[in-house]
Amino acid sequence: MGTFKNGILGGFFGKVGPVVGLQLGDTYVMRALPRRTKPFTAKELENQHKFRLVQNYLSPFIDLLKVGFNNYYTKTGGFRAAVSYTRKEALKKGENGFYIDQHLVKISGGALTPAIDPLVEIAGNGEISIQWNTTTVNRFDESDQLLLLVYNSEQKIFTHRIFNGAYRKDGQIKVTPNPRLLNMEVDIYIGFVAADRSMQSDSQYLGRFKL
Question: Taking the model in full, what pTM does it have?
């Protein structure tokens, strides 16, 4: 971190972004950070590959993850928390290299109660119907709103609901997915976000379905 001498219009010392400041006699100079000359190690290349894999998987629905991971998993929460969680919990290594286990992916996390006994049905036209049990819903959580992700990770095509999903008290939601998803296999995830947006539930993976 750089520090200024004689206010913001004076010289500075230390690193600020891609440059570094220093004093040579009575003169303040600013130099670009030196470029790396030695090659990356095998471990560094592996870490870069794992980060790109997770980033590419999650980036299409970043706006959903910002809500689903709000104040969850890390101090800052949001998309960075989703990346951190996925890299630690859902990134696996198989015979053909690293992959993301869709069963372990989360779109949200927190203390709210998840959906009770969720059930998915796919209609002939690809319409998705999700139902859940509402017998234990009370007045404190009846207005929790459903978070939904329908995702084909190979093509990076999705349909989601963030603040326009059904309420917990409704017990069901029907969604017409992105037409590009028809005849494709998709992974479906749901979660809940509180009416005041203060917390979320742990999301649930409902399975892989062909639309």
Answer: 0.82
